[in-house]
């Protein structure tokens, strides 16, 4: 007799929805829901499949029967801390957030270019005041990372008449952008950009990549948007340049400390728009994550290769251009 497959949905908000989808499609599977992700789930040694976003250090090693980890997000930089076994299969939901994150990034680009903050403040203050708006059509966008998210950003930016360039690890050409440069030429590319959007993961190669040299290469009217990972950008260097007026504006959706403390200086930096790591959010997110997982669950049970599969601690080859492009 075959043991019942045990799936643990280990997530603070998605558990109920995902569990209902799994039970409806696979009634013979046991599904446990755990919302408190600060501690280990009950009986971790009995879990076959773990659906999670974050988890305590070493948890994957304590799940001695675990065969597959499915991440509800895109990032995998935290997987290594879970101490996974080399044989563990790891997949992501990278297909789901690409479009909403791209839309969010374009919203930021348009808002900064059109000085939307001034418009909002003027209405709140009941002041009739003209914004310091810039023309987006004909402007130049530099994308750091040309994976799923970067690709969707490039497609949308082109519709606004924006000239798009990209920096990836090797700088291989892409039909989606006018030119692609390798990562060691990032500062050179930044000098010819009006907007810089960071859509790269956190890896040993990308951490701190957008530092003082790159920020200084941007023109004074340049804007920076980070929807990738916080440690790719030197936030302190960005803050200094915003305070000194050496950059026009920035939007940060990812932060080293989340949530930001109430007293964090970032809240008060002029021309810096802080958003609460929400670029991926949309009304149907949980259902779409569930659909992606169910596709893989069917393949897993049929002993077929998983889609969007990664290796522990690494990005999927198709997930971000800084890995393979």
Automatic annotation (TrEMBL):
Gene3D superfamilies assigned: NAD(P)-binding Rossmann-like Domain
Highest taxon of source: Bacteria
Keyword Disulfide bond tagged: no
Lineage: Bacteria, Bacillati, Actinomycetota, Actinomycetes, Micromonosporales
Organism: Actinoplanes awajinensis subsp. mycoplanecinus
Protein name as it appears in the record: D-isomer specific 2-hydroxyacid dehydrogenase NAD-binding domain-containing protein
D-isomer specific 2-hydroxyacid dehydrogenase NAD-binding domain mapped to chain residues: 107-279
Entries under Pfam families matching the protein: 2-Hacid_dh_C
GO terms of molecular function: NAD binding; oxidoreductase activity
Coiled coil: none
Keyword tags: NAD, Oxidoreductase
